[in-house]
Design brief:
The protein is of the alpha/beta class. The protein has one domain (2-177): HUPs (Rossmann fold, 3-Layer(aba) Sandwich). Helices cover 37% and strands 18% of the residues. It contains 8 helices and 8 strands; from the N terminus they run βαβαβαβααβαβββαα. The protein has an 8-stranded mixed sheet, sandwiched between helices. A hairpin with a 4-residue loop joins strand 6 and strand 7. It is globular, with a radius of gyration of 17 Å. Bound molecules: adenosine-5'-triphosphate and magnesium ion. The site of adenosine-5'-triphosphate has 18 residues, from helix 1, strand 4, helix 4 and helix 7.
């Protein structure tokens, strides 16, 4: 079995997340893609995060109707910060060791990986599928893998991605590029600008109903 996971703060979830997950699920024949909202993201302490309940509810609305997508509260059940290495270890013990996990990450997030807690261990636990995001260069990916993870990662264009004799593969996939981010959506909402067509209409309606992101 192959399962994809997509972690994030999802504040709020948008079409960039959904489309990337859908395309990777197709390309890798994944039986499921699990969306895992971070309860206490180690990197996002500088701003006030929307409550887990709101972020969860928006994900429920966005994922409804796609049988391949699932939602996991695994990081909200654990006390303390949400570290991916702990989530993956826990998932592997729940799903069984014969499940291959494909960790879907945007290039921006992947380049920041060396700042993650015990990040090197991740390369023994799961494959990565790195998807491009506008404004981030793929050349940096090569440099980061070699300096921060292992010099023995080699690019293979047949894959396409980086293979290693012992570690899992780091796949690189082009998905439909969407210059959409949650930060942009929060900013637009706060300025009273339209966010229509950037995220599912149900999520947009929820934002206004609940008065999220300080709409003026
Ligand atoms: P913020 O602007 O608050 O950082 P975000 O849009 O980057 O939000 P996150 O919840 O931080 O969303 O991202 C979760 C994961 O989804 C990360 O791996 C990120 O790189 C990826 N991602 C987010 N937006 C896109 C997009 N438009 N295309 C591809 N991947 C994306
Ligand atoms: Mg982000």
């Amino acid at each position: 079995m192959r399962a994809g996971i997509l972690g994030g703060t999802f504040d709020p979830v948008h079409f960039g997340h959904l489309r990337a997950a859908e395309e990777v699920a197709d390309a890798f024949d994944l039986s499921t893609v699990m969306f895992i909202p971070a309860a206490k993201p180690p990197h996002k302490e500088e701003r006030e995060l929307t409550s887990f309940t709101h972020r969860w509810r928006m994900l429920e609305l966005a994922l409804a109707g796609n049988p391949r997508f699932a939602l996991s509260d695994i990081e909200n059940r654990r006390p303390g910060k949400s570290y991916s290495v702990e989530t993956l270890t826990q998932l592997l013990s729940q799903l069984g060791q014969d499940v291959f996990i494909y960790f879907i990450v945007g290039l921006d997030a992947f380049l920041a990986l060396p700042t993650w807690h015990r990040y090197r261990e991740l390369f023994a636990l799961c494959h990565f599928v790195v998807v491009a995001r506008p404004g981030y260069s793929l050349a940096k990916l090569d440099a980061m893998l070699h300096t921060a993870v292992s010099e023995r990662y080699r690019y293979d264009e047949q894959v396409p991605g980086f293979v290693h004799p012992e570690h899992r593969t780091v796949y690189v996939r082009q998905v439909t590029l969407m210059d959409i981010s949650s930060s942009k959506i929060r900013e637009y909402v706060s300025r009273g600008r339209s966010v229509r067509y950037l995220l599912p209409a149900e999520v947009e309606a929820y934002i206004y109903e609940q008065g999220l992101y300080g709409r003026r």
